[in-house]
Amino acid sequence: MEKLQQRVKEDGVVIDGGILKVDSFLNHQIDPELMYEVGETIYNKYKDEGVTKVLTIEASGIAPAIMAALKFKVPCLFAKKSVPSTLTEEVYHTDIHSYTKNKTSHVVVSKRFLNENDRVVIIDDFLANGEAALGLYNLVQQAGATCVGVGIVVEKSFQSGKQRLLDAGLDVTSLCEIAALDNGKVTLVGEGEL
Amino acid sequence: MEKLQQRVKEDGVVIDGGILKVDSFLNHQIDPELMYEVGETIYNKYKDEGVTKVLTIEASGIAPAIMAALKFKVPCLFAKKSVPSTLTEEVYHTDIHSYTKNKTSHVVVSKRFLNENDRVVIIDDFLANGEAALGLYNLVQQAGATCVGVGIVVEKSFQSGKQRLLDAGLDVTSLCEIAALDNGKVTLVGEGEL
């Protein structure tokens, strides 16, 4: 997705420790038209797969996921990092560790919203170690549902996440693949070869 | 908004303590087409106000806010309940208490994304005591920005929030107003008078 890649190059800020800051258009301030195009791109990839649900995790996954769900015309379900008082029934749950936040979250979805007939697209803003996507896939498996694919806005291709998802048998669609974040500079996959 | 009101009546579940559970279409599983219509309705109300930004708070405010932002063609900014490691610069901050969760969150937005030239629509999923909306308005005021209106998906009209926002001089647009949640039943404002 060229517009996204351009935006990551232009507005992404590399900070210490290989962290990419994209909070001007993705995970604090959000560009809604860019997110719409992200949703549309993921929809075009999986539109013939009989998708019944888009699954993501709060909070930064919600914007791309709701746009994809709008195109698929299916509900968007977001896993919660804490159990709200209104969630009084049985849940599927798993633990997801964030290396960026150095924090493990106990993540839940209600059993009412995911079952063995569901064909799920998982969407998240970032793919690094794959913890979040694999945690969401774990929830899909607990429900006996099928994961038809994983849509990622920004993939850090120099980390292990993509390979871990492929090893789990998942189809992965990353819209912007980052080869390196060295010397304060974003290098995209394939960029040196242009 | 008739479709929303119908959905609240049909799918909303009243649980003990006057809490309305709408997690099948609003704050856990989300109906994207309903959210699009919510965004469109808020856009139609404020489209001539020169809006430059839509402001909400994670996580349940994001879906309606991003849809409104898509219509306004302006960025959607969501206040964060914890300070991420990537947020290294100065922030506006305030404390917001949730009575439902019995928890006070220290809420931040980066100073880069809100300034005195901004004309802001605040959007949230629920209005009860008004804590979240007033907290967001506080952030707008700290930035010297203008709040042109507050868009609310579901208002509990039997609680004090709406009046507190009006007392603060804010224009409030609530798309579904609930008069009572008694005996496990949702009664909308004006419903008894039909």
Please describe what this structure looks like:
The structure is a homodimer of 194-residue chains. Chain A is an alpha/beta fold and 194 residues long. In chain A, 28% of the residues lie in helices and 32% in strands. Chain A contains 5 helices and 12 strands. In chain A, strands 4, 5, 8, 9, 10, 11 and 12 form a 7-stranded mixed sheet that branches. A two-stranded antiparallel ribbon of chain A has the order 1-2. In chain A, helix 2 (32-46) packs across helix 3 (62-72). The radius of gyration of chain A is 16 Å and the shape is globular. The interface between A and B is large, with 40 and 40 residues. Strand 5 of chain A pairs antiparallel with strand 3 (29-30) of chain B.
Write the SSE topology.
The structure is a homodimer of 194-residue chains.
Chain A: H1 2-11, E1 13-15, E2 19-21, E3 29-30, H2 32-46, E4 53-57, H3 62-72, E5 76-79, E6 91-98, E7 103-110, E8 119-127, H4 131-142, E9 146-156, H5 161-167, E10 172-174, E11 177-180, E12 187-188
Parallel strand pairs in A: 4-5, 4-8, 8-9, 9-10, 9-11
Antiparallel strand pairs in A: 1-2, 6-7, 11-12
Helix pairs in contact in A: 2-3
The radius of gyration computed from the alpha-carbon positions of chain A, rounded to a whole number of angstroms, is 16 Å
Main beta sheet of chain A: 7 strands, mixed
Give the structural class of chain A.
alpha/beta
Number of strands of chain A: 12
Number of helices of chain A: 5
